[in-house]
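Progress report, Aim 2. The chain analyzed during this reporting quarter is listed below.
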Amino acid sequence: MRRLAILFMATGAVLGFSGTAHASSDTAVPDDTAITTSVESSVVGLAPVDVLQVSGLMDDIMVDEIEQAIERAESNGAQALILQLNSKAAVVGRDTMQDLYERIATASVPVAIWVGPSGARATGLPAQLLSAADATGMAPGARIGRSGTPLADDVDFGDATDALRTETLGFQDARRAGALKLEISDEGAPTIRNMVFALDGLTIDGVELDTAVENLNDDGTVANDITTVRFHKLGLWPQMLHTSASPPVAYLFLIIGLALILFEFFTAGIGVAGVVGAVLALLGFYGLGALPERGWALGLILFSFVAFAVDVQVGLPRLWTGVGLVAFSIGSVFLFPTFDQQNLRVSWLTLLVGIGGIALTYISGMPSMTRTRFATPTIGRERLIGETGRAVTDIAPDGAVQIGESRWKARTNRATPVKAGEVARVVAIDGVVLEVEPEAGGARDYRER
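Predicted structure tokens for the chain:
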């Protein structure tokens, strides 16, 4: 059962993380919350360019990180900041997004937005941030649009302004409609390097950006080189919280965490399953707190685990298991609503993993584990008379004793207590309870004095 739980958790985590951010090969590792790296070039004397990866739903963590990136670029000598954007919706309020829009528009350092890599999306309120940026570009295969109601009066995408409110456009259509603020070749900007090179010579607020130079190779050919690029990204813990604020990840973290906690209730002590389950459940609840979930659907999921627990106690899947599966399935399907013009419901593949894994766990796995753990042998117990074992708890007069691989309920013979860890000898059997006495001295009834 533990292997089943671990497999269930690993499969869910892989599916959940695959549905969040698309990492670019141009993006390295975290910034000052973790690590900052830079790509050095042969260009000497040019100010660097900062790059921040913005992926997943736009939540409070990502909004704060963008604002910090702007402050960092304004103070560390960067000549520009590029936001590598891949976000389908915002889960923060419109007021927060309006403040972020104004912060980008009024930054003292030029802010550019690159929607990439290929396959990236900028939709919902995050798409409107392109209007606030000083320069915008896209990778081939990326799409922008379905921006909804404008955050500000100056949200403008040229001839595509009206179309982008309700539909998405690819690079070529956005370029022809004047939705982008950079002169980019027909191939677009497939990498950050292309985006940095496209910024060269762009004049913003009277300042001309100098991000690339031409170098003469030894063979006489001319090569273009760009300035130093410093990549930034969320640190480990902020990234974990940000990833949790994603519908598939929050859903899988929650149900796997609850399943492991319930599993721990029917095992001895608190082990790895309980600790892992508690962490995953907390991350799942954090993610749900940042997402627009339906409260009644969440209530059905929580109720389903109570129903599962009823039948797990008896070791057989009965009525309550069926009730729990129905409640769990309904709650899973309707947990997340449409928000910011985006359907945030988890994919059918994720639902299949979640519902199928829970069904397998509580129809087969958990009942089998319960029967194995708490079943009592009905034959051959007489052979235990005369055997010795070690007291698991104090037997005074009742407790538990370990004999071989099995743990038994025990009661002291007459009135002599046996402390935990001491050796006890079986002298009789009363039903499923072993009567024991200390190995040395035997039992004595002090009432006979």
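The chain is about 40% helix and 20% strand. Residues 246 and 287 are 7 Å apart (CA to CA). These observations will guide the mutagenesis work planned for the next reporting period.
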